């Protein structure tokens, strides 16, 4: 029997400590971190190269915002699975990102076990939506 392939995850945040925190969560889920970026411009370029199964993308970043990077990625890869990372959850920003194709949101201040639960639930809902198309 072939071993189950690990989920390939890319993390994008301009703050190094946040990337480390998210890495801890992702590794605890037995996923593989295939790449990291510190700004939206680098995120789009790296996504094209790596084509991860999951992208965790910060909203507020230099060079290109997370919303702009999300729009670029979803235009080229409509089935990309993206969860936005944010420290702010104003309703307008959330709605904009969902409209652009984000599958969900994670607040950076969530406890790690809650963050893990949100990622799992969002991934399950995403997979189910693909099978219904």
Q: How would you characterize this protein structure?
A:
This protein is of the alpha/beta class and 133 residues long. It has one domain: 3-Layer(aba) Sandwich (Rossmann fold). It has five helices and five strands. It has helices at residues 16-28, 40-50, 66-76, 91-100, 112-131, and strands at 8-12, 32-37, 54-58, 82-86, 104-107. The protein has a five-stranded parallel sheet, with helices on both faces. Strand 1, helix 1 (16-28) and strand 2 (32-37) form a beta-alpha-beta unit. The protein starts with 7 loop residues before the first strand and ends with a helix. The relative contact order is 0.16.
Write out key terms for the chains shown:
5 helices, alpha/beta, Rossmann fold, single chain, globular, about 50% helix, five-stranded parallel beta sheet, about 130 residues
């Amino acid at each position: 029997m072939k071993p189950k392939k690990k989920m390939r995850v890319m993390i994008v945040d301009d703050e190094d400590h946040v990337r480390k925190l998210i890495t801890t969560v992702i590794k605890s889920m037995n996923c593989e971190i295939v790449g990291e970026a510190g700004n939206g411009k680098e995120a789009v370029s790296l996504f094209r190269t790596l084509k991860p199964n999951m992208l965790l993308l910060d909203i507020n970043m230099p060079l290109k915002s997370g919303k702009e990077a999300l729009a670029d990625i979803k235009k080229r890869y409509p089935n990309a699975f993206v969860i936005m990372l944010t420290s702010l959850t104003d309703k307008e920003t959330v709605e904009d990102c969902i409209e652009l194709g984000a599958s969900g949101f994670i607040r950076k201040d969530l406890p790690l076990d809650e963050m893990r639960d949100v990622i799992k639930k969002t991934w399950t809902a995403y997979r189910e939506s693909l099978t219904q198309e």
